[in-house]
């Protein structure tokens, strides 16, 4: 079981993630905006952050960059999620320090495979 922070502004996607993560036995919580996300990550040190790129206030790219700038958060895995799943977007996210990148809408099997890879079997 892993501790997962979901930063996602779209309720329908957050609901689907809640269902999947609950069914798989993960402890998780959601933030609907990016404001305060870095502080939340710093305070609670989740095993994984499922981070939407397009948030209403702060870009997911900015959040991953801020997390990677803090050496104390090196062990926090970040999986970026975006509806703009182009190669350019993927390269940008990985270059900024994301551990994975998944295009929305995603297949549950694809998301589960990424979770397993990033959590090292803790799912």
From TrEMBL:
Keyword Signal among record annotations: no
Domain Response regulatory: 3-119
GO biological process, one term: phosphorelay signal transduction system
Listed SMART domains: REC (SM00448)
In-chain residues carrying the UniProt-annotated modification 4-aspartylphosphate: 52
Pfam families given in the database record: Response_reg
Keywords noted in UniProt: Phosphoprotein
InterPro entries, per database record: Bact_response_regulator, CheY-like_superfamily, Sig_transdc_resp-reg_receiver
Superkingdom per UniProt: Bacteria
Name of the protein described by the UniProt record: Response regulator receiver domain-containing protein
């Amino acid at each position: 079981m892993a501790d997962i922070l979901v930063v996602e502004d779209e309720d329908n996607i957050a609901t689907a993630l809640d269902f999947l993560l609950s069914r798989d036995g993960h402890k998780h919580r959601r933030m609907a905006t990016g404001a305060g996300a870095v502080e939340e990550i710093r305070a609670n040190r989740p095993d994984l952050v499922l981070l939407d790129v397009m948030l209403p206030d702060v870009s997911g790219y900015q959040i991953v960059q801020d997390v990677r700038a803090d050496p104390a958060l090196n062990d926090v895995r970040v999986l970026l999620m975006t509806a703009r799943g182009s190669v350019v977007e993927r390269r940008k996210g990985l270059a900024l320090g994301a551990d994975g990148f998944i295009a929305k809408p995603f297949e549950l099997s694809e998301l589960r495979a990424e979770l397993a890879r990033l959590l090292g079997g803790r799912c």
